[in-house]
Amino acid sequence: MSFISRGFRGKRRDTAAAGRVPPGQYVVEDFPVLSAGPTEQVTKDIHCVTKWTKLDTAWTGVSVDTILDGVDTAAEYVVAFSYGGYTTNLPLEDVTGGKAWVAFEFDGQPLHPEHGGPARLLVPHLYFWKSAKWVRGLRLVNEDQPGFWESNGYNMYGDPWREQRYWGD
Ligand SMILES: Nc1nc2c(c(=O)[nH]1)N[C@H]1C(S)=C(S)[C@@H](COP(=O)(O)O)O[C@H]1N2
Ligand SMILES: [Mo]
After folding, report:
1. Which atom of ligand 1 is nearest to the CA of 114?
2. What pLDDT is recorded for position 26?
3. Residues 78-87: pLDDT tens digits?
4. Which residue of 22, 43, 59, 160 has the fewest CB atoms within a 10 Å radius of its CB?
């Protein structure tokens, strides 16, 4: 995990800035990005139930482990819920242990709105409908409750390696 991202580029001394720059400071042209925080860069293969697979997709996000850090729960399932009303259900086990992220960048750029920006869930080991776009929260629940697609015939779990596409798979 990288706690410090891109640093500062170069120093610039500008006479026009005289009197405006506190001691020990230097003026920059760009707006440096220096985030201290538990963001992670992950590269994962993703699999859609409609049969496309995209290899080596590169994301920046926060691990769900970090989001749930300090949360003490007996719940065994989560319902991810999104702006717009979409929901999807997952075992808590499948979003913890380094398996899921709330992602806000794709390929080093802010996540486009059509792909779930500003932030989406990323659960690459399950079919991609589990990766809720525009994610608003995770509800911890004791019993597995079908989300939007799961109520409409998609599998409750959705393991692509076992082709768990629909009910009964
Ligand atoms: N909020 C929300 N999340 C969603 C969906 C949706 O309709 N609404 N569709 C799901 C489905 S079925 C798929 S395949 C993926 C598509 O993600 P993409 O548009 O980034 O390819 O998002 C999933 N997450
Ligand atoms: Mo999908």
Report:
1. 19
2. 84
3. 999 999 999 9
4. 22
Q: Give the architecture (CATH level 2) of 39-162.
A: Alpha-Beta Complex (3.90)
Structure pTM?
A: 0.83
Q: Above pLDDT 70, what percent of the chain?
A: 88
Does residue 111's CB lie within 6 angstroms of at least one atom of ligand 1? no
Q: Quote the CA–CA distance of 65 and 102 in Å, as a whole number.
A: 10
Protein residue with least CA distance to atom 11, ligand 1: 129
Angle, CA 56 vertex, CA 94 and CA 153 arms, to 5°? 45
For residue 58, the surrounding DSSP H or E stretch is: strand 53-63
Domain ranges of the chain: 39-162
Which of 109, 133, 138 gets mutated to test ligand 1 (max ligand atoms within 8 A of its CB)?
Answer: 133
Over residues 81-113, the pLDDT tens digits come to 999 999 999 999 999 999 999 999 999 999 999
